[in-house]
Amino acid sequence: MTTNLLNPVASFAAGxxxxxxxxxxYGGCLSAAGISTQEQQQEIESMGFGSxxxxxxxxxxxxxxxxxxxxxxxxxxxxxxxxxxxYLPLMVVRQYGLIEKHASALGLAGLSVSWIRYxxxxxxxxxxxxxxxxxxxxxxxxxxxxxxxxxxxFGVKGxxxxxxxxxxxxxxxxxIETLKDLNKxxxxxxxxxxxxxxAVTLQMxxxxxxxxxxxxxxxxxxxSMSHPEAMKALLSGQVTAHFxxxxxxxxxxxxxxxxxxxxxxxxxxxxxxLAAIWTRSEFHLQNPKTYRAxxxxxxxxxxxxxxxxxxxxxxxxxxxxxxxxxxxVQKIINDPQVRYTTAPQGIMKYARFMxxxxxxxxxxxDWRDVFFPFTAEISGS
Length: 381
Fold this sequence. Notes:
Blueprint: H1 2-32, H2 37-47, H3 52-60, H4 63-69, E1 76-80, H5 88-96, H6 98-105, E2 112-116, H7 121-129, E3 136-139, H8 140-149, E4 156-164, E5 168-171, E6 188-190, H9 197-210, E7 222-224, H10 227-236, E8 241-243, H11 248-252, E9 259-263, H12 264-268, E10 273-280, H13 281-286, H14 288-307, H15 309-320, H16 326-334, H17 347-357
């Protein structure tokens, strides 16, 4: 009987001893590489793995194996581009070849960067999921939906904010002053029904105006249109309203027939990120230098815009083939409500609302849950 009892105990002790020895050896490898156990844990927590098993596989790699696994990075990346001044940082990055510049500085000379415009946000995110695109871009709401949808799979997360700017709900009927003045004959154009940032912001505004349980009262009034198409439709009377973004909302207000009845900043109680850029955890993990090159390129683009707004306006006109005057574009960029920064703002306001109405099943505890480092290291909300 005594022997039977000792065997399990001995097995447990042996297992514990092996675990301890293994930990010491692994810790010694980390120390030899100049990496403390605490630093390694922080690295794991910040990597943004899609699942615990991915993190486990990463932990089991020695420093040498990790370096060998990730030494061969991609030779080409594809980035989604969008309409409007919210995406000006990407235009500056493209115009000045900033990703290529920073990639070369990190030892990745020859990196090819392609820019793709998709017909819809769904098509773009499908391409991202199937590995046909490395970086998606768009509003905060689509980012939160992708984060929620891919959690525990391949883990889409935000790379950085691209811009903070208000969105205006513009109308072409003088008798409409508030949301309560709209009726079913009044079509509201926005980028995508129910899922775009404008659509979610409209739901938040409806909840404030009509009551929390009536957040979707205006969904039936909405139609999907790109901003250029929606602006034409508003000015021609085909739609009554356009929930827009810069520069389109300002162009519409140049005509006497259009006025604003709502600003997204009024709904949110202050400034918020309009556009962001995101990628898969797998890409972030396997291509750390390329990822860093993209982030550093974005930071340099922000610096260029904020230091010389006239030059930034010229870049916008050039890259977007805009016929707007440089003075007009510069005036928008100079608006105190318009900011270009990689720091996310107002993410949790959208996350809490979208979780409450069931648009996302998982609510992040903090905005940092939705973004990779290096973004999570900066101040945001």
